[in-house]
Amino acid sequence: MSAGLWAAIGTGLGAAVRKQVPAVVGVCAWVLFVEQVLLGEILGDIGRVTPGALSRAATIENPSVSPLLAVVLLSLYAIAAAGAGWFAIGRRDVA
Contact 88/15 with Cβ under 8 angstroms? Predict the structure, then answer.
């Protein structure tokens, strides 16, 4: 379930950013560095509702929140990313 939602997040961010390398590097840096180091140690409880933590909670690897709530919140992240991509594509010129 979380892999499909990450695919929607990636598609939306890829459409919004427009360049593949910054999109991939940004997502990897967010999940591997920002969520783990900054949010986990500095902000504590806010780190439980980041996309990476919700993905781990949805697969019951690290149940910081209930799996159902994790899927719902991760779905909201996917809807927001897809909406941002849709909005960005709609405002671009074809050429």
Answer: yes
